[in-house]
Amino acid sequence: MKGQHILLITFVYFVFLVVIARLTGKNDSNTDFFKAGKQSPWYLVAFGMIGASLSGVTFISVPGWVQSSEFSYFQVCLGYVAGYVVVAFMLLPIYYKLNLTSIYEYLQQRFGRISHKTGAFFFFISRVLGAAFRMYLMAIVLQQFVFEQWNIPFEVTVILSILLIWIYTNKGGIKTIVWTDTLQTLFMVCAVVLSIYFITNELGWSFSEFLVSEELNQYSSIFRTNSILTRDHFLKSFFGGMFITICMTGLDQDMMQKNLTCKSLRDAQKNMLWFSIVLTLVTFLFLLLGALLFIYAERFDIALPLMDGDPKTDLLFPEIALNTGLGMTLASVFILGLIAAAYSSADSALTSLTTSFCVDILDLNKHSDTDKKRIRKQTHIGMSVLLIFVIIAFKHILDSNVINSLLTAATYTYGPLLGLFAFGIFTNYKIKDKWVWLVALLSVSISYSLGQIPAEQIGGYVIGYELLPINGLLTFLGLVLIRRQ
């Protein structure tokens, strides 16, 4: 597929988003930007959240991970479902009862100003890294298959991508995101279904024949129960996935901001439960697609694409979709799915970062109505610039699969949030608020040190995603030490 065709598809898709933004962003108010007037239909939010949760990381990196991990990632997904139940029935009732704009305002009410700022800071770091991971994937694909042939620098690719997102989220904020995410989820799900159809057809299979094929058996192993020492043992993956969901959804302003636009708590809970079911099914489709990609590559002797001289499994899907002669339809479907996946997570991240920074860090409510809108707009620009710098930095420091890097980073950055909220919900203690930031930093430092211990020094035990609840527990214990007597 030629680069100009990819750019044309991107342009047409972007026009769709701008039209939606103009329709939903007519009322350029902070209320609509932050909460969408609390009038979003729950089913619309649920469907749109699928795209924001999966993102370009799932669209490209999960299929690319199948070669080394087979279907073991699905163990983590099962843990996700358990985590969504906790979010629906433990966290959402608290947020709705307190009528929060930013969920970190809870920490202000429960503990004090420093706890509030500490929680917002760790969300800020978490979401900047998460959004940058996701946009980085889209940028390297566009760079590898479009802009490289025109000698356009990677930095320009990143700037253009973020600029497009800023344009259509500038006015409507979360109200626009609820609708654009729905469109983007639809494109992404259609893309994975059609990709599976085209590739199985090219391999001479029906979908049912693919499911019972010997080739699929090479990749379809899910459960790892032989040794608790391994990183991907079922219990470690399941409970790690559960806590990742509690943190990356229930304690994350990005995901919760959409839920808080629903008309009632009951609607938000229905949204969360249906969303978890559909998300699990769609993720399994991505794993099937990953197996198909490696089967196809092996049968037709397609080498892994190189990036900076090293093989990159994350680029196998775009390589097969765009460069192997499977037709313009599959190539177009892939590009639409990739753009939809990347934009659906990055646009909501940009909006939630703006919301949290304004409400939690800048104390927006202390300013006049005129100043509030000016501060919001300036912050929106500032968050866009920050994402650009972080994405560009990733090109020079990432050396592993992106989905693995994303989940590993989450174990460090979300741990203090888990500990803070757990302490607030499950105890009645007051704490010495001024020391909360120190407890959080120490728990991250200790967790990071634990994560660096070589497996051979601890009996061959490989520390995995269980580091997140460990991090949260360390924060919880640290808060016990600074509780007021």
Could you estimate the helical fraction of the residues in percent? Answer: over 70%
Number of strands: 2
Mean pLDDT: 83
Portion of residues in beta strands equals under 5%
Order of helices and strands: HHHHHHHHHHHHHEEHHHHHHH
Care to describe what's here?
This protein is mainly alpha-helical. It has 20 helices and 2 strands. The termini are far apart.
Relevant terms:
74% helix; two-stranded antiparallel ribbon; single chain; 2 strands; mainly alpha; 485 residues; globular
Condensed summary:
The protein has 485 residues and is mainly alpha-helical. 74% of the residues lie in helices and 1% in strands.
Give the secondary structure arrangement, pairings included.
Elements: H1 3-24, H2 30-35, H3 42-69, H4 73-98, H5 105-110, H6 113-145, H7 154-169, H8 174-202, H9 207-211, H10 214-217, H11 234-250, H12 253-259, H13 265-299, E1 306-307, E2 310-311, H14 316-323, H15 328-361, H16 369-397, H17 402-413, H18 415-426, H19 436-451, H20 467-481
Antiparallel strand pairs: 1-2
Helix pairs in contact: 1-7, 1-8, 1-15, 3-6, 3-8, 3-13, 3-15, 4-11, 4-13, 6-7, 6-15, 6-16, 6-17, 7-15, 7-16, 8-13, 8-15, 12-15, 14-15, 15-16, 18-20, 19-20
